[in-house]
Amino acid sequence: MRQMPFIVNGRPVSVDAADHTLLVDLLRGPLGLTGTHIGCDTSQCGACTVLLDGAAVKSCTVLAAQAEGRAITTIEGLAAEGAPLHPVQEAFVVCHGLQCGFCTPGMVMTTVDLLSREPQPSAECIAHALEGNLCRCTGYVNIVESVQTAARAMAEGGAR
Ligand code: FES
Ligand code: FES
């Protein structure tokens, strides 16, 4: 075990971790950021998706040591407590892009990454971007609509 520094949701932190500690376990354990979910632990479901230096990664397949010194954003970091939701979060609410909500943090983080690279994605592009995020509930139609709605909102209101 050793102290590893990270920037988590904009805040510098230092956490005691082993070289083999998974990033998702670091987030959910010592950092208490349980909005990042574990659905499979084998890189299939996408529920554990976070941003690493702005790019979506499945945190169940990233070692904490690989993220050392880097910026990690979790679902908790998209909007400050009491502040308006991030446009992607808002769109998932408005468009009913979730049912049980288990997959939603991963869906939202993948969408934030997608819209940072592709501000006006086609439905095909959205489907491709979300192919690593599985949802057992919604059938994906409302999820795609949520992404399109978020894209429009961010184009009108300025990207975040
Ligand atoms: S828990 Fe990481 S992809 Fe499923
Ligand atoms: S909303 Fe239940 S798994 Fe997606």
Automatic annotation (TrEMBL):
<keyword id="KW-0001">2Fe-2S</keyword>
<protein>
    <submittedName>
        <fullName>(2Fe-2S)-binding protein</fullName>
    </submittedName>
</protein>
<keyword id="KW-0479">Metal-binding</keyword>
<dbReference type="InterPro" id="IPR036010">
    <property type="entry name" value="2Fe-2S_ferredoxin-like_sf"/>
</dbReference>
<keyword id="KW-0411">Iron-sulfur</keyword>
<dbReference type="InterPro" id="IPR002888">
    <property type="entry name" value="2Fe-2S-bd"/>
</dbReference>
<dbReference type="InterPro" id="IPR051452">
    <property type="entry name" value="Diverse_Oxidoreductases"/>
</dbReference>
<dbReference type="Pfam" id="PF01799">
    <property type="entry name" value="Fer2_2"/>
</dbReference>
<feature type="domain" description="2Fe-2S ferredoxin-type">
    <location>
        <begin position="2"/>
        <end position="78"/>
    </location>
</feature>
<dbReference type="InterPro" id="IPR036884">
    <property type="entry name" value="2Fe-2S-bd_dom_sf"/>
</dbReference>
<dbReference type="InterPro" id="IPR001041">
    <property type="entry name" value="2Fe-2S_ferredoxin-type"/>
</dbReference>
<keyword id="KW-0560">Oxidoreductase</keyword>
<keyword id="KW-0408">Iron</keyword>
<dbReference type="Pfam" id="PF00111">
    <property type="entry name" value="Fer2"/>
</dbReference>
<dbReference type="InterPro" id="IPR012675">
    <property type="entry name" value="Beta-grasp_dom_sf"/>
</dbReference>
